[in-house]
Automatic annotation (TrEMBL):
The lineage of its organism: Bacteria, Pseudomonadati, Pseudomonadota, Betaproteobacteria, Rhodocyclales. This is ATPase, P-type (Transporting), HAD superfamily, subfamily IC. It is a multi-pass membrane protein. Coiled coil: none annotated. GO terms for molecular function: ATP binding; ATP hydrolysis activity; P-type ion transporter activity. The keyword Transferase does not apply. SMART domains: Cation_ATPase_N.
Length: 903
């Protein structure tokens, strides 16, 4: 028998379970039998293939070509060390490939470990008790509870439901939410059965109890997933930028080598010398450490963000955060504490304290007759579930918990039996419950005042009777509460006629308004400071909330988000405007969007993106998923967020705190800045590696720096310090700069000018000065030939190499910030710098003073006087660069902040 055709009792019996679920021991036994409830992961590429891929990217191919040319040169012109050079280049490719593979592997495992901090859970009955269990441990026969915002964790048959509606688009393709019932139905298949909820779908509204009948790959979703596991993922913007940069640099290096090979030949340089020259230029211009540095920088940023309660679900999202220009944030739980407390009640035309000291005193004062209707609705109209472990005995929406607790403080508790429910939905902004109390059935309704009050024909009088609705008095009370920053809820009810069904909105008519409640949700303690940091960083913050406009304005004013008169866009305003009008309205420096639906929120995000903004959006409900997906950065709440919101987001806030978003943006900015620091440092050394080759060809002097020595710098002394720059924490002034433009490149004109034409030129001048200084001190004159193993030549070329390393040591501190001074060095902020410096100095010492280093790199020992002559040259570069930074800072102070865009 198909499971959807059976009655509830038959289904439970067939699955060997009951309405209270399985025992824990039976669940363990079934888990061993049926396996874990998870879709088989997409097959990963074999590690061996992924390892091999590290040796076939653009940079590696260029180096393979260089190694091949060196081998050919050694074959036709032996004795020039070209064979050793080819072996060295191959060694560079291997070391770099291994390191890059290891970094990528570690980063992948780190992201998986962070994701494990936030596993999907389900509420299941085990041993008759409702507990949160891992969704992957569900088994056929488990009875689970489903609520609005939950992802359905397995294929289930509904056995009890109230207003249940699900979004089944992921399985059936049906875009509109569909209702679900518990009764047996006739259907052609599982996808069409109205009493089944399938894995991969999500609950839009209502509540249900359901029994699991299929898990893992046996679900409908599992079968679909099996068909789609070979779909390729789209590369991120950062990956595209790195690929573009890699191709550009590799092609430029190859083209430059070829050009100067022919230039050398045209100037009469011997063929093999020209070939050596071309190989040197190619090797000098390839930043071999770029790819592992990108991965390292992103991975370390994700780990720092996790320590600051921001869980990154997609690694490239880290860098994208740094470009954020606008944050569209929820109010409740993000800007506020989400600790609801009723602080004001209005019933019968009078204001009441929410919590009397003694109920008897309230009765004597005549409060109970006036408040009876309001408290009855507050106690009975909710979607909470009983939870003995929760404070107050209920778990669910904090606002509903606060209302139930308020009613309990007056001695009023839920009574009667629920017979129907119209759940809260975006767009309706209200919920209703039909409860049978004795011979009467009451419809209890609560929601936003602007949707509840128009459905009321009477309102409660002080003596418990009814009078005509006084709209002016209601509006005055509503505005007074909203100006205090309170969230206002209206309560109404009516007695249903005998046999009247509650099936749709038509039942919510001719109501009696029982009163209003003002609920306080205080702003988080440090959210004002976080908003101020955003403003200082050039990031606009727009509150997008479903709350009453005056309440949103009051909270915005309290946290420093707006002044007294911000531009307020209601949901109806957003719906009425066309795209151009909405974009213009959002240009206002202070904007609050209130009473918005999911569709309105999505339109706001799209309008901002059309204006060129990089938009981060927060959300916690199932209705926030479209905006989270459409945003450049979707940010879900980890505590209060629904499964649907978390799945749609790029990042999850483990503490639901707005200030955490600001910290995450700071880390995102640091990633982009660190990559630019790395590139500045690496590209700077390309010039003192390239210029000696030009001098060799154009001036017909001994080659100041050999190819093997270039490799010693690129993959030896420079590698670890450059990686340390990729792991720099955010610099102190990073959040005082405007966001970088969307069009900003990792390598732009300013970086090229600084690295190639300023720092690189200074290093080239210093290294050549030392080279020719040593030659002159040894009695060399221009035109005199020097053998490759001549002691004077070995000492001179070693001095050139050592000078580049010394200059790069100074450059390491200069590159830590393009604007701020290098002093004080702040070494404690990045211990990797010390390791990098130690390795760099140890390696150059080994090259200069160890016999093996001399033999491999064509070097010779240097005396102390030679080292001392390098220091003034390094200090001169530091002084000139610090002067340039000081000039930039003075210029930035003279210009308006918006005119200085951070690159």
């Amino acid at each position: 028998m198909d499971i959807w055709r059976g009655q509830v009792e038959e289904v439970l019996a067939g699955l060997g379970t009951g309405g209270e679920g399985l025992g824990a021991a039976e669940a363990v036994r079934r888990l061993a039998t049926f396996g874990r409830n998870c879709v088989a992961a997409r097959p990963r590429q074999l590690l061996a293939l992924r390892f091999a891929r590290e040796f076939t990217h653009f940079f590696a191919i260029v180096l393979w070509i260089a190694a091949a040319l060196a081998l050919i040169a050694d074959r036709f012109n032996p004795g020039q060390g070209m064979g050793a050079l080819a072996a060295a280049i191959v060694g560079v490719i291997f070391v770099n490939g291994c390191f890059s593979f290891w970094q990528e592997y570690r980063a992948e495992r780190a992201v998986e470990a962070l994701a494990a901090l936030l596993p999907q859970r389900a509420l299941a009955f085990r041993d008759g008790r409702l507990d949160a269990v891992l969704a992957q441990e569900l088994v056929p026969g488990d009875v689970i509870m489903l609520e609005a915002g939950d992802n359905v964790p397995a294929d289930c048959r509904v056995i009890e439901g109230r207003g249940l509606r699900v979004n089944a688009a992921t399985v059936t393709g049906e875009s509109r939410p569909v209702g679900r019932v518990a009764e047996a139905v006739e259907a052609a298949g599982a996808a069409d059965a109205r009493n089944l909820v399938l894995a991969g779908t999500s609950v839009v509204a209502g509540h249900a109890r359901a029994v699991v009948f299929a898990t893992g790959m046996h679900t409908e979703f599992g079968r679909i997933a099996h068909l789609s596991q070979h779909t390729e993922e789209r590369p991120s913007p950062l990956a595209l930028e790195i690929a573009r940069l890699s191709r550009l640099v590799a092609l430029a290096a190859t083209a430059l080598g070829a050009v100067f090979f022919f230039v050398g030949r045209a100037l009469g340089v011997p063929f093999w010398d020209s070939a050596l020259f071309a190989i040197a230029i190619i090797v000098a211009n390839v930043p071999e450490g770029l790819l592992p540095t990108v991965t390292l920088s992103l991975a370390m940023a994700t780990q720092r963000m996790a320590r600051r309660n921001a869980l990154v679900r997609h690694l490239p999202a880290v860098e994208a955060l740094g470009a954020t220009t606008v944050i569209c944030t929820d109010k409740t739980g993000t800007l506020t504490e989400n600790r609801m407390r009723v602080v004001s009640l209005m019933a019968g035309g009078s204001a009441w304290m929410p919590r009397p000291e003694r109920v008897e005193e309230a009765n004597e004062a005549g409060a109970t007759p006036a408040l009876a209707g309001l408290l009855a609705v507050a106690a009975g109209c909710h979607g909470l579930r009983l939870d003995p472990d929760a404070e107050g005995g209920y778990a669910g929406d904090p606002m509903e918990v606060a209302l139930v607790e308020c009613a309990a403080a007056w001695g009023v508790r839920e009574s009667g039996t629920r017979v129907a429910e119209l759940p809260f939905e975006t767009g309706r902004n209200r919920m209703s419950v039909a409860a049978a109390d004795g011979c009467a059935v009451w419809l209890l309704c609560k929601g936003a005042p602007e949707v509840v009050v128009p459905r009321c024909v009477l309102q409660r009088a002080p003596d418990g009777g009814t009078v005509a609705v006084d709209e002016d008095a209601i509006r005055g009370a509503l505005d007074a509460m909203a100006r205090r920053g309170l969230r206002v809820i209206a309560f109404a009810r009516r007695q249903l006629d005998a046999g009247e069904a509650v099936a749709d909105d038509g039942a919510e008519r001719e109501l009696i308004l029982e009163g209003l409640a003002g609920i306080e949700d205080p702003p988080r303690a440090d959210v004002r400071e976080a908003v101020a940091r955003c403003r200082e960083a050039g990031i606009r913050v727009i509150m997008v909330t479903g709350d009453y406009p005056a309440t949103a304005v009051a909270i915005g004013r309290e946290i420093g988000l707006t002044g007294d008169a911000p531009r307020v866009l209601r949901g109806e305003d957003v719906a009425r405007m066309n795209a151009a009008q909405l974009a213009l309205a959002l240009e206002s420096p202070q904007v609050i969007c209130a009473r918005v639906t999911a569709e309105h929120k999505l339109r706001v995000v799209q309008a901002l993106q059309q204006r060129g903004e990089v938009v981060a959006v927060t959300g916690d409900g199932v209705n926030d998923a479209p905006a989270l997906r459409a945003a450049d950065i979707g940010i879900a709440m980890g505590r209060s967020g629904t499964d649907v919101a978390k799945e749609a987001a790029d990042m999850v806030l483990l503490d639901d705190h707005f200030a955490t978003i600001v910290s995450a943006i700071e880390e995102g900015r640091a990633v982009f800045e660190n990559l630019r620091k790395f590139l500045t440092y690496i590209l700077t050394s390309n010039i003192p590696e390239l210029v000696p080759c030009l001098v060799f060809v154009l001036l017909r002097v001994p080659l100041p720096l050999t190819v093997i020595q270039i490799l010693a710098v690129d993959l030896g002394t420079d590698m670890l310090p450059a990686l340390a720059l990729g792991a720099e924490p955010p610099s102190p002034g990073l959040m005082k700069r405007p966001p970088r433009p969307r069009s900003a490149r990792l390598v732009d004109g300013a970086l090229i000018a600084r690295a190639y034409f300023f720092l690189g030129v200074l290093e080239s001048a210093a290294s050549l000065a030392m080279f020719f200084g040593v030659l002159a001190a040894g009695g060399w004159v221009r035109g005199e030939a020097l053998g490759r193993l001549d002691p004077l030549y070995l000492e001179a070329t070693t001095a050139c190499l050592a000078t580049i390393v010394v200059m790069q040591v100074a450059n390491l501190f200069l590159c830590r910030d393009a604007r701020l001074p290098a002093w004080p060095p702040r070494l404690a902020a990045n211990p990797l710098l010390l390791w990098g410096l130690g390795f760099e100095l140890a390696l150059i010492a080994a090259i200069v003073y160890l016999p093996a280093g001399n033999a491999i790199f064509g070097a010779a020992p240097l005396d102390a006087e030679t080292w001392l002559r390098m220091l003034p040259l390094a200090l001169a570069m530091v002084a000139l660069e610090e002067a340039r930074k000081a000039w930039l800072r003075r210029r930035a102070r003279r210009q308006p902040q918006h005119a200085v865009r951070a690159g």
